[in-house]
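Narrative summary of target 7.
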Amino acid sequence: MLTLAQELSHPFSFAYALFFASGLHQLRRETQAAHERAEAAITLSTEQGFPTWLANGMVLQGWALAEQGERGESIAQIREGLAAHQAMGEELLRPYFLALLAEAYGKAEQIEDGLTVLAEALVVLDKNGEHFYEAELYRLQGTLTLKQAEVRGPQSGVPNTQHPTPRTHAEAEAEAYFVKAIDLARQQQAKSWELRAVMSLSRLWQQQGKRGEARRMLAEIYSWFTEGFATADLQEARALLAELS
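Modeled conformation, tokenized:
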């Protein structure tokens, strides 16, 4: 797509191609490549006056910056891109973009903001029927719910014999989110989302001492794949299976 757009000398098609190439790298968790393609889309869109690809590119570049440790700058850039996206009346991809913002908030330890953004993303998703990132939204909810409990720590004055600890309650809530994500991914036959959600649940079960159950579940989805073993998700899954052995 990139080659054809260049051969045609058609800037709009090239900006389009750069954005979707960046998106592909983002989904594969290839941070540097995602950053480079998004930056190129931003530069070209600024020169040519393509506001949609400029706004969208800013969101993806912001995600890459968060992955590279630029917490404050990344959040500001994603929010700016989202604001421009919304100002144009755009709704397509908004749940996906909000999920990327929630990830950035999570990395910056701004957990409440991240959970608020995920709730907004689910509202937009229900309104517009754009479900391709739905499983990831629920997986991220589970992940941030666990982080929230870690940040808050144990609450004093609550007898453990009568009430679950905040961590225990958060684990139950997070598990429900992970199971929801797995169910949605299976309904959509979205194996990559299923793998990510299973990994999140497996890590939780590992912490709870349910190593055997975690390994069986992860091994089942991992064995489905026949290619792509150099990608970040499958490498992570392989390493987790080794830990669980």
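Residues 134-151+167-245 form a domain with the Serine Threonine Protein Phosphatase 5, Tetratricopeptide repeat fold (CATH 1.25.40.10).
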